[in-house]
Amino acid sequence: MEKQYFVYLITNQPYGTLYIGVTNILARRVYEHREGLVEGFSKDRGLSRLVWYEVHQDVNEAIAREKRIKKWHRDWKINLIQAMNPEWNDLYDSIG
Fold first, then answer.
1. Overall domain count for the chain
2. The predicted structure's pLDDT at residue 1
3. How far is CA 15 from the centre of its chain?
4. CATH number at residue 52
5. Which strands form 49-56's sheet, in the order they lie side by side?
6. Which domain holds residue 89?
């Protein structure tokens, strides 16, 4: 099986605070956010709702994409989420 890497956005509520990350096991990483196992920004702000992600086959491509999106204006990130998930549903159950 080919390795996969995920760029993802989590939040605390629709249009709330956004956090972007990259991981090779999305379900595990989101679980860590949900359970408060990740110290720092996401835990301090209660970010646990997976609202957007994309899959990459190359780790360097995923990291580069994460870095690009981090530099985006907030409105662009919101548009990215709404294109995939207009209701801002928590996608965690659909990835497990």
1. 1
2. 67
3. 14
4. 3.40.1440.10
5. 18-23, 5-11, 49-56
6. 5-95
Closest CA relative to residue 88, chosen from 32, 1, 11: 11
- Sign for the CA dihedral angle at 39, 45, 46, 49 comes to negative
- CA 62, CA 46: separation in Å to the nearest integer? 25
- pTM of whole model > 0.90? yes
Are 34 and 54 spatial neighbours (Cβ–Cβ below 8 Å)?
A: no
Sign of the four-CA dihedral 92, 22, 31, 16: negative
DSSP 57: S
Residue 35, helix vs strand vs coil: coil
Using 70 as the pLDDT threshold, list the residues of the chain that sit under it.
1
